[in-house]
């Protein structure tokens, strides 16, 4: 299993799908699994709180890691110590993005409950996570300014040569 991690808005889902297509492997997005099984993430946060969401997320990650292909994790999934331990057995790709680039991606997005107020929330949320992302990563790719197709080819090339 190849796992994509990184902050909200870095393009884990979009890039993960492209890389999976290039490699001819399945793609799974834990946020999409949660939505399919439990409904919209903002609604889960509102009705049940973040702790309940994180439990659902942990279950989706655990099940996803049992499969093959590429797995995209939600930005906060790496906060769980069990997930951190589990990722040691997989190749992990950390996707980064600059605050300026993410500000454009987050504009008008209401599906990310922890960054509702834009880039300032995003910076505050991700600052303490950055060390965890870096520690877990086998490779890091910046998605701030490069075309997704170019990045997907670069990530796929790294995956096939390591």
Automatic annotation (TrEMBL):
InterPro entries hit by this protein: P-loop_NTPase, Shikimate/glucono_kinase, Shikimate_kinase/TSH1, Shikimate_kinase_CS
GO function terms (MF aspect): ATP binding; magnesium ion binding; shikimate kinase activity
Residues at which ATP binds: 9-14, 112, 146
Biochemical pathway: Metabolic intermediate biosynthesis; chorismate biosynthesis; chorismate from D-erythrose 4-phosphate and phosphoenolpyruvate: step 5/7
Binding site for Mg(2+): 13
Subcellular location: Cytoplasm
Name this polypeptide is given: Shikimate kinase
Species this chain originates from: Pseudolysinimonas yzui
């Amino acid at each position: 299993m190849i796992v994509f991690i990184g902050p909200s808005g870095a393009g884990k889902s979009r890039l993960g799908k492209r890389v999976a297509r290039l490699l001819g492997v399945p793609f799974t997005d834990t946020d999409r699994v949660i939505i399919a099984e439990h409904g919209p993430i903002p609604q889960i946060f509102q009705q049940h709180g973040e702790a309940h969401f994180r439990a659902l997320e942990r279950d989706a990650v655990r099940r996803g890691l049992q499969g093959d292909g590429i797995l995209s994790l939600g930005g906060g999934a790496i906060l769980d110590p069990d997930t951190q331990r589990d990722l040691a057995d997989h190749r992990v790709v950390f996707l980064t993005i600059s605050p300026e680039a993410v500000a454009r991606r987050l504009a008008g997005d209401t599906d990310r409950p922890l960054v509702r107020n834009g880039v300032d929330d995003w910076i505050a949320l991700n600052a303490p996570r950055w060390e965890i992302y870096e520690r877990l990563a086998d490779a890091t790719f910046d998605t701030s300014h490069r075309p997704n197709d170019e990045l997907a080819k670069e990530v796929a090339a790294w995956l096939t040569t390591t």
